[in-house]
Amino acid sequence: MAHDQQSPAPAGAPELAELRETASRIRVLTGQLARRLRAAGERTDLTLSQSAVLSRLDRRGPATTVELARAERVRPQSMGTTLAGLEEAGLIERSPHPSDRRRIVISLSPEGLRRLGEAREVREGWIARALEERFDERERAVVVEAIGLLERLTEDD
Predict the structure, then answer these.
(1) Whole-angstrom distance between the N-terminal and C-terminal Cα of the chain?
(2) Which are the contacts of 122, defined by CB distance < 8 A and separation ≥ 6?
(3) How far apart are CA 72 and CA 81, in angstroms?
(4) pTM above 0.85?
(5) Is 105 within 8 Å of 95 (Cβ atoms)?
(6) Crossing angle of helices 13-40/110-134, nearest 10°?
(7) With bands split at pLDDT 50, 70 and 90, how would you rate the model's confidence at 96?
(8) Closest to 45 (Cα-Cα) out of 115, 124, 127
(9) DSSP states of 76-117 as a string?
(10) 62 close to 105: Cβ distance less than 8 angstroms
């Protein structure tokens, strides 16, 4: 006996399709947002990767190359390249680890802190102006709430 009808979709299939569509939209949106931030940041000479490292050092304090690479989800060799550029520009300082002299700890230099502030002002200024100009008060409140929820996506398990 031939089976002409497709079997019913498993329970939850529409929800899964909707979640996949949402995931796709988030992926596309984050790419677009990163490009807009990169364009806004062209007035600074820091790349997004460099700004991310300086920002992490500012928020979390000194760290080793391996810790920074793990936190930024890049290979230690890639982080080494980013750090070399930051060190050459005088934006970070290297010092011996307090408990293991074989390891090196990276920290922000005073110039790094100053330049990070400039880069933040440019990129965050663009976002703040866009939120003010394009959204009403209720919509801005929704964005703030959504940010808290989206931050959970990037938390380590």
Answers:
(1) 49
(2) 40, 41, 43, 44
(3) 13
(4) no
(5) yes
(6) 120
(7) very high
(8) 115
(9) HHHHHHHHHHHHHTT-EEEEE-SS-TTSEEEEE-HHHHHHHH
(10) yes
